[in-house]
Amino acid sequence: MDSIETVIFTYFLSISFILILCLSSYIRYLNMLKNCQEDLDD
Amino acid sequence: MYKYVAKYFLINRVYKFCGATAFPSFLIGLVAFIFSAYFAIYILPADIEQNEIYRILFIHVPSAILSELIYIFLAVNGFIFLVWRTKIAAIFLNAAISIGLVYTAIVLMSGSIWGKPTWGTYWVWDARITSTFILLIQYIGLVALRSSFNSRQTADQILSIVAIIGAVNIPIIKFSVNWWNTLHQNASITTSGSAIDSEMLIALPMMLVSLLFMSFHIFARNIQYEILNRTGKTAMMREIING
């Protein structure tokens, strides 16, 4: 439990949380941008 | 003073700034994170008492700092929105909530993993951990509140009020280890010096900066989303999208 693998697992889990949020924020923004552009084209 | 500051926070200026800086910020943050994590895990020496597991400190502490700073940021923006009715403050408030939520989750998760070998348990209801858990609940509450109102103006007002009231928890988290007997240790870095060896200490600001850059990417994309969401089919949106 106090091994280096546990530390690496913790770092991996932490960066995964952050990267998932990065990706979801970006996708959410892109979808909104696409909707807005479609609205403007109409 | 207010007019001087406000001219830099015009909606279309902020949108363009976020668009220009989001991706470079993410790249810098990711590279800095990989470098900091490698430094913290493989370069720094093991601790004499906690051996390898102390290395969790370099993700746990920066996440804790950010989770609290982001909440203060929410409260300040909530106050600005309530007092001056500045739309951009409400946008900043909405854009930062999810980031604070993730950092608080990371603090509790990394603290639990660290607690098992050092304290013999994943979780204990001591003052520091409980107050941080309450912070997580506050963030979840803000996320839930954000989408609970039909009127955006009402949602922004309620969010601002809740963010300001909730800020009372931040000094409680900070001083909980001094006010109560806790299993959680006291602050290692104080104004009178650091209990962490200077060789080990350098990884902390490195990790903090890398997380700040990555957080800015999320913040910038959330701001852009909020701006588009709020402008509707207006001339301003045409101006924003077409540059």
UniProtKB/TrEMBL annotation, chain B:
GO terms for biological process: cytochrome complex assembly. Its main location: membrane. It is a multi-pass membrane protein. The chain crosses the membrane at residues 21-44, 64-84, 91-115, 127-146, 158-180, 200-220. GO terms for cellular component: plasma membrane. Residues 8-184 form the Cytochrome c assembly protein domain. InterPro entries: Cyt_c_assembly, Cyt_c_biogenesis_CcmC, Cyt_c_biogenesis_CcsA/CcmC. Keywords: Cell inner membrane, Cell membrane, Cytochrome c-type biogenesis, Membrane, Transmembrane, Transmembrane helix, Transport. It is found in: Cell inner membrane; Membrane. The keyword Membrane applies. GO terms for molecular function: heme binding; heme transmembrane transporter activity. Pfam families: Cytochrom_C_asm. NCBIfam families: ccmC. Required for the export of heme to the periplasm for the biogenesis of c-type cytochromes. Belongs to the CcmC/CycZ/HelC family. This is Heme exporter protein C. It comes from SAR86 cluster bacterium.
